[in-house]
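Narrative summary of target 7.
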Amino acid sequence: MVSYSGPNTQRNDPLLYNSRLIKGYVEYAKEHYPDVDIDSLLSYAGIAGYELEDQGHWFSQRQVDRFHEVLAQKTGDPNISREVGRFAASSKASGAVRHYTL
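Modeled conformation, tokenized:
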């Protein structure tokens, strides 16, 4: 388990989720909810744009929970995780996420 005390994580937060996971959510939101301000979602979750683009970057449980919370709220879809999973498995979205999902 990796720990990092960078600008967007707490000192002892273990980093559990790769940026490719969040990137899949972002791709889904851009396609299905173009009016949702992705930058504000990322900011609320404590995720910087460069972190999202770095395929080797990892996020904490708190960051992912906050991102999911605000995304579900802004889209009005409490089942957003299921929809993102379907999107990743059935489309050309995010090759690496699709590979891991399958």
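Residues 2-95 form a domain with the 434 Repressor (Amino-terminal Domain) fold (CATH 1.10.260).
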